[in-house]
Amino acid sequence: MRRMSTVHLHFMARFAAIVLLLAPQIAAALELKPFKDDLFAYPGLLETRDNGDWIKVDYRKERDLYQRDDDPERKVKGKYVARGVAWHQSFETIAFADRSVDVFDVRKIGRQAFSVIFVHGRGVDRKLGASDDRFGGNFNRLKNLAYDNGGLYVAPTIKAFDAAGQDNGVRDVAAVIAYLAKSAPGRPIILACASMGTLICKGIARDPQSVAVLGGMILMSGIYDDGFMETPFYTAHLPLFFAHSTDDEVYKATDQQALYDKLHAKGYPTRFVLFNTGSHGTPLRMLDWRDTLDWFLKRT
Fold this sequence. Notes:
Elements: H1 6-28, H2 37-40, E1 45-49, E2 54-58, H3 61-66, E3 69-71, E4 75-76, E5 89-96, E6 99-106, E7 115-119, H4 126-130, H5 138-148, E8 152-156, H6 163-183, E9 189-194, H7 198-204, H8 208-211, E10 216-220, H9 232-235, E11 240-245, H10 253-265, E12 270-276, H11 282-286, H12 289-297
Parallel strand pairs: 2-12, 7-8, 7-9, 9-10, 10-11, 11-12
Antiparallel strand pairs: 1-2, 3-4, 5-6, 6-8
């Protein structure tokens, strides 16, 4: 057996010491830096189970809407936003393969540490995901979290939600995912879909090329997918996050809850955040983006 020299032993000892010193920094790199956490953290938990994978959040309309906004549902109070991020955002068009997709984005595309794609619902476009003042300033927080942590935030326009529109929307978002994966290979890509936009997530879950580079999906006030457990996304065991409200009259929380329960019982990586008394749009206002993204980044 070859014996190590004293020099080699000293080198290995120093290397091991450096690794031990850097270990906390490496671990910390998996968590996003705080941004207005005192304002956006969940105001209280009414119930928790499944070792914290399922939580019910205390939402109160008087406190979390009327006291938070100067003009309810239109303009949040100034302390909830930081507008300097506007210097790093733009409306542009991504051309990739045979698709041309209008998007809003924050930070230059290329070498980003992670990416978040937000897909809106019916009747709006990419401007919803660009709004600083609507939904209690929560999109502004997401933009700042992405920029401050070397990430990228993208909100594409879905032009229609009829059958043909959904098909085109899935193809467009698949092209955005592929473009981001090429620009920063191996970096996490989180797809977040809201309301009818979850039909796009449903389609992406069935696209093997997209699934191969995704880091997970968020379904906000979404549509129940009774075929989810037969998709490439499920087979890949990618993290799936639900955000819903008890009083959502558009898509019932109980349907998504049933899917969560099935997945959790199988040991699938999933989480459910339920806003007590909230309505259809409450998750867009109340989701704690830092807590949510950290949940994904620790699993990629």
